[in-house]
Amino acid sequence: DGGITQSPKYLFRKEGQNVTLSCEQNLNHDAMYWYRQDPGQGLRLIYYSQIVNDFQKGDIAEGYSVSREKKESFPLTVTSAQKNPTAFYLCASSTGHNTDTQYFGPGTRLTVL
Amino acid sequence: QQQVKQSPQSLIVQKGGISIINCAYENTAFDYFPWYQQFPGKGPALLIAIRPDVSEKKEGRFTISFNKSAKQFSLHIMDSQPGDSATYFCAASIKDSSYKLIFGSGTRLLVRP
Predict the structure, then answer these.
(1) pLDDT for the residue numbered B93
(2) Whole-angstrom Cα distance, residue A95 to residue A48?
(3) Inter-chain touch A92–B43, beta carbons under 8 Å
(4) pLDDT in tens, B68-81
């Protein structure tokens, strides 16, 4: 099966702890993206990567970090500096052209206790 | 300038009716306009997309109408079905080096049986 997998589906974190969300794709896509989804606010771009070992900040990168060591993997770390991390996090990938479809994973719901 | 404004926030339609969701933008550099459909607890999936060189695109019961001069585009769902109940997002992207998608805030559609 080709697609994007995200794990875990649900994640609980205590305040002050860093947590890493996994995103893997086997679509051979060059570009990968992380979005945050809050009720009534649509999807906001956190980070994106168009090629291995390179990534750029999106609109709301503060308090987050990423790495892109392999083409198929783009993990997102939510650090303790993120003031309001409770949200639904979505990973996506595409071939990298602007008219290309972004394929989304099933998401990870992060709750800070 | 980078925003895409979407309305209404929520919509209730009777089965068989027409659902209409509207989006507006300011940045004339946008050149690709996709619509995504998202079911609860799932990632969004591409529904239909349009380029500004056409005024309308139809795929089955789903039609995008595009008004370049007014900088508006809309999604029409004909013969709406309960299975269409989902959240719909319009988006736009610019043909620059990033190919980022800018999403609207979403419309929650409920189709009553």
Answers:
(1) 87
(2) 13
(3) yes
(4) 999 999 999 999 99
